[in-house]
Amino acid sequence: MKKKMNVTAESSWKEVTPGGVITESGNAGDFRTGDWRSMKPVWNSEKCKQCLMCFPVCPDSSIKVCNGKMEGIDYDHCKGCGICAKVCPFDAIDFVEE
Q1: pLDDT score at 1
Q2: Helices (H) and strands (E) in the chain — how many of each?
Q3: pLDDT of residue 84
Q4: What are the residues whose beta carbons fall under 8 Å from the beta carbon of 74, sequence distance 6 or more?
Q5: Distance of CA 98 to CAs 9, 75, 93, Å?
Q6: Structural domains of the chain sorted by starting position, each given as residue range(s) with its CATH number in brackets
Q7: What per-residue confidence (pLDDT) applies to 25?
Q8: HSE on the CB side for 2, CA within 13 Å?
Q9: pLDDT tens digits for 10-57?
């Protein structure tokens, strides 16, 4: 069994694979990729009707859902593609410059 990579802000370059090569699946949670974006979705809970149209289309699984309701956006992993804002039929997600 392989040891699961656990990269944190305190990790040194010696703890990461050369060139950032991914050697195993299921490690996306170990890397904060949200700082790549230049635009970000901003959720307006008052406009949201909890249709969850945004949830299945997010390629980064950054829509936080608990007990069948949206609770926010995981900005640590959201790369700012804007798909969630585009599919929202109630304009509850604004897409703004970071």
Answers
A1: 45
A2: 2, 4
A3: 97
A4: 34, 60, 61, 62, 63, 64
A5: 21, 11, 14
A6: 1-31 (no CATH), 32-97 (3.30.70.20)
A7: 67
A8: 9
A9: 878 777 767 666 667 667 777 788 888 999 999 999 999 999 999 999
> What is the mean predicted confidence (pLDDT) over 66-73?
96
pTM for this predicted structure: 0.71
In the chain, helix, strand, coil percent, each to 5? Answer: 20, 20, 60
Q: Which amino acid is at 49?
A: K
Phi, psi of 52 (to 5 degrees): 60, 25
Distance between CA 91 and CA 49 in Å, rounded? Answer: 10
The length of the chain is: 98
Contact 47, 91 (CB under 8 A): yes
> Structure tokens of 60?
């980064």
Task: Identify the bridge partners of residue 56 per DSSP, sorted by sequence position.
Answer: none
C-alpha–C-alpha distance, residues 13 and 16, integer Å: 5
Other CB atoms within 10 A of residue 16 CB: 14
